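quick one, 290 residues, struct below
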Amino acid sequence: MKYAQSRDSSDEPVPVPVTLVDTHAHLSMRDFDRDRDEVIARAKAAGVVFFIEVGFDLASSRLSAKLAREKGVFAAVGIHPHVAAKDMDKWEAIEKLAGLPEVVAIGEIGLDYYRDLSPRKAQVECFVRGLELSKKVGLPVIIHERDAGDQTLDIIKAHPPGGAVVFHCFSGDRFSARKRLDLGGYLGFGGPITYPRCDDLREALKYCPPDRILLETDCPYLCPQKFRGRRNEPSYLVYTLAEASRITGLSAEDLATVLTENAVSAFRLERVKPASTCGKNKCHAHGQDP
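---
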């Protein structure tokens, strides 16, 4: 999919005076080949100092680890259900990537019965392989799920991972949220909380305890309403934060601090020391001045 990329001065996000973590990004995709460095610079200027670059097959997982290493951020490696059948034999290579210091999670993995681009049997097998790898290497998991909620939860219960469970791009209602919170999961909310018709999703966010909320862009997808239809990027996370602040009743500054603490806890970011500096403010991801 192609996205409009024109910008003007009204596009510039208002920085939040604390560190933010975009917990799900795909900046290694071709959509960012022309201006990747500029996108990362805009993110840091907006307060989004860290992001987790997420792989979805072997090739993108390698690129994610490479980008994280070069830009001083973090990576996740895994096999998406869309390519479960094609990449089933790639788990040994994924395991090698999982040992890299910049890799903080296995994912994204899960089930997608909406598009059904891989046979469901293959999706389940691939999902289990990912959970088992998480257990083996002691890393959290990033879950992708569409139209397979109950089975997704059943598989997680049967194959508990080696760290936190992050439900990426959560799109359910408060009852769906409750089931995932009961598993000790974190819920990742993104641009859709700003969409006019997503009242159930906003209700789920309001219901969710603040210490279980994560914010993500899933860029280049799912732009906030202000830029809907265009390419998403990490700097736009501040617009999602503003809506989350309105919904939860917490100030943007207080909520951002909690969200960063959640990201550090869920992904154990204090164990990783990226190569780049964190900026002038105290680095919440490391718990120390840069």
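The chain has nine helices and eight strands.
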